[in-house]
Amino acid sequence: MFRINDNFTKLPASYLFSEVARRVKVYTESNPGTDIIRMGIGDVTRPLCPAVVEALHAAVDEEAKGESFHGYGPEQGYGFLSEKIAEFDYRSRGIDIGTDEIFISDGAKSDTGNIGDILSTANRVAVTDPVYPVYVDTNVMGGRAGELGEDGRWSKIEYLPCTAENSFVPALPVNNPDVIYLCYPNNPTGTTLTRAQLKVWVDYCREHGALLLFDAAYEAYIREDDVPHSIYEIEGAKEVAIEFRSYSKTAGFTGIRLGYTVVPKELKGVDEAGRSVALNGLWRRRQTTKFNGASYLTQRGAEALYTPEGQRQVKESIDYYLENARMLRVGLAEAGYEVVGGVNSPYVWLKTPDGMSSWKFFDHLLERYHIVGTPGSGFGPSGEGYFRLTAFNTHENTRRCVDRLTGKS
Amino acid sequence: MFRINDNFTKLPASYLFSEVARRVKVYTESNPGTDIIRMGIGDVTRPLCPAVVEALHAAVDEEAKGESFHGYGPEQGYGFLSEKIAEFDYRSRGIDIGTDEIFISDGAKSDTGNIGDILSTANRVAVTDPVYPVYVDTNVMGGRAGELGEDGRWSKIEYLPCTAENSFVPALPVNNPDVIYLCYPNNPTGTTLTRAQLKVWVDYCREHGALLLFDAAYEAYIREDDVPHSIYEIEGAKEVAIEFRSYSKTAGFTGIRLGYTVVPKELKGVDEAGRSVALNGLWRRRQTTKFNGASYLTQRGAEALYTPEGQRQVKESIDYYLENARMLRVGLAEAGYEVVGGVNSPYVWLKTPDGMSSWKFFDHLLERYHIVGTPGSGFGPSGEGYFRLTAFNTHENTRRCVDRLTGKS
């Protein structure tokens, strides 16, 4: 009888957002007509910007005519887009990334999940805690996690707590991991690391031969000068880091799907025999074998983001969300909460009052203020006692949320 | 130092299409102005049909307005599409497939590649030979292939030759494999299996506890009654088979990306402890963790294929390619070649004359007739001595190709 991948049976059911939905349903059924404000949304709400819409229509028209039809494209993406990425996302910041180091895909979730394909199952992994669950779950599937303990931690994964105690700055690992995931600006805490703080990680990886998987999905929200937009702003990072980028939160591409991953040619791991092997070629082989390129339409849409109008329109949208984040941050502080994030990020992260558990606070917020957010414990053990609110609702609802919390309504 | 996945280093460079391009370049540089006809194209050339184009424009307009904007969709695809699939692709053929057994994705290449994630690396694999290289290469990456022998075969993979000797009907395996890949209508040979012939495979898998991975990417080209469009037309197949479908060759979606995979709830493997585990839940977990859904635009485009106009327009396009296939098949036979395929398939597969090697015949065709095709040996050891021509060029070029081969021009 054929066998399944046993690692899958180790994964507990993923219940965070379904449990949120269940509790909201129970509450609204007992309290019909309650005006609930949803601040747990992790998805954008503003439409695609006009420059993108125009480019998408034009690309559809190209696909409608034999002489301009595009079938299979390059698995690693079209040059018209990777050239813009190299120029605007990197060269403009003094970083030299070749178009053959850029791999365009259907999104950062796919890439952060699939990257394990090119890595040995023997590698030991470290993650910050709380963390985007995909990093942990995909390593469970890949056989790198060990066993799940009663404390919610996997035995072979090193957890690097990020809490108020260390100002949400993770300490360096102590167990000499081979692969380290960092996501900055961070999901879920909304915190960032400065140039000097990121340099510590790049230096650590260089010294210890560790691979840094750097998720920069929220890069476009950065407004402070000392916060790097790319890990490659740090000297030597090309020797140790893969960077994941996404158009989802940047340009509202969550529904039309696009992201990219940078694998510098300098970046090398070792094989069984200790020989040095460049990851660029491995990822190229993975993508050309298991992926057939991102949609031509979406790639043309993304190209339009690099025009002056596209840049202006995207900034406008992100400014809109950042104003929501500001309102939340200031309002929550005024209401007496300890809060971080929301400056270079669409997420604000608050400490629950009086040592309340994340889920208890969820119920409290729902019942007392009719506000829905996301319990921090859903993002890992060190998220317990914290809570996430997001900036993806409207100005009006965000204002009403703050007014409720500060007792102004 | 972090370690790479050593299996990647076993993969030889994939050189088939680059070597084709190189030889064509060398020839045209020495013989400038030669009028070369490219019949090796594995990609569609006709534009998207009007029903799809209209639906794509409408979907772009939805994404342009806040009130109709769609962000993240369900990872397994939208109900508006899976309901159409269940109705038109299955119920209309008397097959009952639930929408929760359908997983919409960015394409069959991704799915046939990623399916290995949910299967044990201990499974032994069988493939027909010649074969779509993705099945073999992804099993090399996944550690199921063993070592590459000098005969071009991987030590742990069972090859099931399909040649003129067995009328391109693979014999049942003898080494009791756990996972068997079948692609019908076949790429590259263009041959099909009848209902009775496919039943032999389903029965074998049921008896031996093997998993059947059935790639039906060319289903829409079937015109003969006795050739099943779905493996689930065979009784008992839901207990043993996963079916992969694609909109690429059906509706020209190679550039805009869409496919789907059916994992019936009855289909079960075993875990380490011998417990029975349903694959539907495993694939759902894989897709929700490592994939974020296919583009909303493309899903709306596919929905339009199930309208009366969409159905008519798609059939028109496929009829166009099938007429090319017919011309090639008849013309090649007239020119004295042994040829199969081209009836329920866009591919024709011919035996090279006088025992010529596939590459020698490539050169011969290029130099003598200025026609480019694909050497059969590129698809596996049993493809040696064969050659693939495709129906994806225009009527005019296909006619000219045939005229050259039959000496009419």
CATH H level, superfamily name of the largest domain in chain A? Type I PLP-dependent aspartate aminotransferase-like (Major domain)
Q: Label the CATH architecture of the largest domain in chain A.
A: 3-Layer(aba) Sandwich
If strands are numbered along the chain, what order do they take across the biggest sheet of chain A? Answer: 2-8-7-6-5-3-4
Question: Main sheet of chain A, how many strands, which sense, barrel?
Answer: 7 strands, mixed
Q: Percent range for helical residues of chain A?
A: 25-40%
N/C terminus separation of chain A: 63 Å
Morphology call of chain A:
globular
Task: Specify the number of helices of chain A.
Answer: 13
CATH fold label of the largest domain in chain A:
Aspartate Aminotransferase, domain 2
Number of domain units of chain A: 2
Instruction: State the name of the first-level CATH class of the largest domain in chain A.
Output: Alpha Beta
Q: How much strand content do the residues of chain A show?
A: 5-15%
Average per-residue pLDDT of chain A, rounded, comes to: 97
Number of strands of chain A: 15
> Assembly type of the shown chains?
homodimer
